Amino acid sequence: MLRIHQFPCLNDNYGYLVHDADSGATFAIDTPDADKYLAEAEKLGWVITGILNTHWHPDHAGGNLKIKEATGARITGPAGEAEKIPGIEVQARGGDQIAIGGYLVHVFDVPGHTLGHIGYFVPETKDAFVGDAVFALGCGRVFEGDMTMMWNSMQMIKSLPPETTLHCAHEYTQANARFAETVDPDNAALKAYINEIDDKRSRGEPTVPMSLARELETNPFLRADDPALQAAMGHPGDPVATFGEIRGRKDNF
Ligand code: ZN
Ligand code: FE
User: Fold this and answer.
1) Which of 60, 117, 167, 235 is catalytic?
2) C-alpha of residue 56 to centroid of ligand 2, in Å
3) In CATH, what number is assigned to the domain containing residue 119?
4) How many whole angstroms from 117 Cα to the centroid of ligand 1?
């Protein structure tokens, strides 16, 4: 069985430890806070054997060296930004296959937030670790790439099986919801989702992980190929311009 332990880190990050009980392999997905990761692993009786980085930002790779020093964990990260990943030993790129104990992991490219950003998908359990590429009802800011690149990354996410569970790196959902309802006000599925999100947050519960199937119906950044949304954004037939319009509005929201 593959166990995924999720816990809050820093201000609004989520940390993840992924554990294969048969082999004892335990992988940290990103390393926002080394001390927190080490403490959570110890609490569960797990020893971190590997680190999988999604991108170079310090709230994702900043704890690499301290965790490696404490555990000897082997660090895998994006080939496209290897020079910025502390302690990287294995350079991964889209199409590569790696292993968490007995579980196969597919690496996929989702550049745009950063140029080398990658994600990790476990086909057997349909879990995807997406870093800052996509959030519940949102997506990462396009810092290093352009809108064409980021829309292609949204299409990469959309190509995963709809029953996939998305594990993203931040609890940004409520702010994303406030924005999503401004661009897609007539979407009934979105309204229902937002009600659930607001309920969860009022109880202090996480809204992450989330279902890809549900995001496909509600996340405006994944829906830039929807004709109604394209028309509403003033770019009929143009998913890249529609995506860029939505991203631009969110940046100024
Ligand atoms: Zn980031
Ligand atoms: Fe981040």
Assistant:
1) 60
2) 9
3) 3.60.15.10
4) 9
- Look up 132 and say whether it is catalytic: yes
Quick one: 126 exposed, middle or buried, by C-beta within 10 A (0-12, 13-18, 19+)?
Answer: middle
pLDDT at position 252 is: 97
Q: Are 17 and 26 in contact (CB under 8 A)?
A: yes
Domain count, the chain: 1
pTM > 0.85: yes
Q: What is the pLDDT of residue 128?
A: 99
Q: How many C-beta neighbours within 10 Å does residue 128 have?
A: 26
Q: How many residues does the chain have?
A: 253
Helix, strand, coil percentages in the chain from 3-state DSSP, rounded to 5: 40, 25, 35
pLDDT digits (tens, 9 = 90+) for 193-236: 999 999 999 999 999 999 999 999 999 999 999 999 999 999 99
| Domain, as residue range, for 230 | 2-251
